[in-house]
Structure formats: C-alpha cells, structure tokens
Amino acid sequence: MFGVRLPRYRTKSGLFDDIVAAQIRRLSAAWPQLVKPVQFAVEDVPPVQSDVWQDASSTTSRGFPAQHGVPARIVLYRMPLQMQVTNRMELQWAIRDELVSQIAELYGRRPEEIDPDWGM
C-alpha cells in the first residue's frame, strides 16, 4: 500500500499533468493578463489529420486562437514530448518551452519576452 504522495502512486501521465500545472501557475504569476484567458489541455497524441502532420512543430503542442466566443486554447501532446526527453528535468524544460512558445505565438510576441530562459 502506498500513500497518494509517494512516488510509486503517480503515473507518467499524472506526473506530466503535474508539471504542466506547475508551469501554468508559474507563467500565470508572471503574466496573468496573458495566461488567464487561455484554456490549457493535455492530450496523449495529436489528432490524426493530414494538416497536423505536415507541420512538425504541431506534433508536440498546438495553439488555437480565440474566435467566435471561444477562448484561446493551447494543447500539449504528452507522448511526443515524453519521447523527446530522457529525464524529468528535460521534460520540465520541454513543457516550459512549449507553453511559452505557444503563448508567445498567440499574442504575437517573441518567446524570450514571455520567459527569458526559453530555449535554454
């Protein structure tokens, strides 16, 4: 029997969700006016559509601008991101970079404006 806070209780997808939530909280503290109106989601893999696979950058995340009363959305794709890294620290950086780049793209800013450590 393991308690809910012990490492063996967490699944890979649960840990991924925790890292995403922590990065969103961090970015929201720094840029509340940019992060608050955006909805965030995690999917296991990108949808199977020909237009999605033509752009390699959309295999790890995708941003959807606000339109017709629907708020802006950012979707991270868990399995492609996990396949690119070898440890938890790299996963944190990859998630951070994906979120920052998608937020920057939604608002027409450079990622370095949102997070000076982006890409490091």
TrEMBL record:
Organism: Bifidobacterium subtile
Protein's name in the database: Peptidase
Cleaved signal peptide residues: none
Gene3D superfamilies in alphabetical order: 3.30.2010.20
Top-level taxon of the source organism: Bacteria
InterPro entries, per the entry: Zincin_1 (IPR010428), Zincin_1_sf (IPR038555)
Transmembrane feature ranges: none
CDD domains: MMP_TTHA0227_like_1
Organism lineage string: Bacteria, Bacillati, Actinomycetota, Actinomycetes, Bifidobacteriales
